[in-house]
Model the fold of this input.
Amino acid sequence: MSLPPTSSAASPLAIEREFRALLLRLNYPTSARRQLQEIEYFLAKVLPQSRRYESYILEIVQRIPEIIQRMNIIGIDPESLRSVYENVKELNIALPSLSSVNGLAAAMQRLRLAISTLFTYVGEASTGTEFETEHVLDVEGSFTATTDSLLIPVVERSLVDTPGSLREFGSLRKISVEITGYSESGKDLFQPQVHVLGKGDHLQDVLAVPIRAARALLLQTNPGLHDTYFAGSVIFDELNSFHQGSSANLAIAALVYSALLRYVQAREQFSIKDNVTATGDINEGGDILPVDASSLRLKTEAVFFSGISFFVVPSSQLLFAEQVVDSLKTRYPNRRLVLV
Done:
């Protein structure tokens, strides 16, 4: 999983410290993917001396089945998950005690199917290997977008950056919008059921700007609603995941606008297809603004390793996103992703 370089000659005392630090980090509210990333880093470090650190490995591996069961696989390079799979397989051979871990065999099967699914997303057949793409993981029930939902790319962050924490990465999170009724308060009231980090890593309200942008467009197309206000909620999946910034604002505004059109039974209505995603900030007037370049790279990578067909980006950053896709296609030339 793009692990940082490490020395194979770590002392037992250093391994003990890392083990304790890992247990501490695994208790923080983080996503399943980040937890698996932390575990993979530790296992790769102790793998050459697995018998010496058997008790540590056994305790850590016991956490893997639950983590894999709830992990959102969409947006991950299959080769990075393959390294996790291969390391655990190797440990299973070296340490017979791992056979006692409840659910580990089923978790490994699920991980294998996840890797097959990701190879399918990038157009790789993997025929003749254990990652045959005719057998894939059924993720449709959890991640297919509904009428007022969308998978959007984000850069995941830890709520607390502890010593030893691994690098940021892109992932796709499902965002849903629900209109619950009319607001009598003289303003739109939307509840943000989402964790987004602002400056200083403080949780921030991410809805104010995109809700105003959606309302501005609604009044342009339906001026009779000028004195009508709405209540609703914006929900992200996997609430233990945190991301930073305002690049989801375009998607939030688009979803709220389309949901409001349906709610008021407007003559013209719009919806976003489930094979489309978007990134971009937005101002209250509805102008699309660029996102941080480093985050765009990670988001583009996440979209590349998904079933998304069309990726909407700010026009000023189209060339950069194309360069990221072209770089990834040197390894996965059969992937077809249209940038808009």
